[in-house]
Amino acid sequence: MIEVLLDLLVDLFPWYRKKKRKKEEWYGFVEEKKIQGDYLLSKKRYCVVFRTDNERRIKIKLDSQEIFDRYEKGRRYHKEKGENYPEPVE
């Protein structure tokens, strides 16, 4: 219940989440990919869930399918401080 209310508040203030996320640095892998809003008239929302090396779950909501398609389930990524999105680790 509390998590749902927090998600609602964060959805109302998306700039806060992006600002906070930009300051973070971590390594992790894609645990899950979701597409929400499959209805005809609703806007699709894309979500990628990462599991970091210290077992923290990070959920990143995306607006475009191009960014969503960059991520592969099970692949390892590195989120650098100052960047918006994680990049793949070679």
**What portion of the residues fall into strands of 2 or more residues?**
25-35%
Distance between the termini: 39 Å
What is the rounded Rg? 13 Å
Number of strands: 5
CATH topology: OB fold (Dihydrolipoamide Acetyltransferase, E2P)
Mean of residue pLDDT values: 84
CATH class: Mainly Beta
Count of individual helical segments: 3
- Are there runs of 5+ residues with pLDDT below 50, and where? none
- Tell me about the biggest sheet? 5 strands, antiparallel
**Computed structural class:** alpha+beta
Oligomer: single chain
The CATH architecture name reads Beta Barrel
Give the helix proportion (percent range): 25-40%
Question: Which outline best applies?
Answer: globular
Q: Order of helices and strands, N to C?
A: HHEEEHEE
Structural domains: how many: 1
Physical arrangement of strands within the biggest beta sheet:
3-2-1-4-5
Question: What can you see in these coordinates?
Answer:
This protein has 90 residues and is α+β, with helices and mostly antiparallel strands. The protein has one domain (2-88): OB fold (Dihydrolipoamide Acetyltransferase, E2P) (Beta Barrel). The chain contains 3 helices and 5 strands. It has helices at 2-12, 14-22, 65-69, and strands spanning 26-36, 45-52, 57-62, 76-79, 87-88. The protein has a 5-stranded antiparallel sheet. Strand 4 (76-79) and strand 5 form a beta hairpin. The termini are far apart.
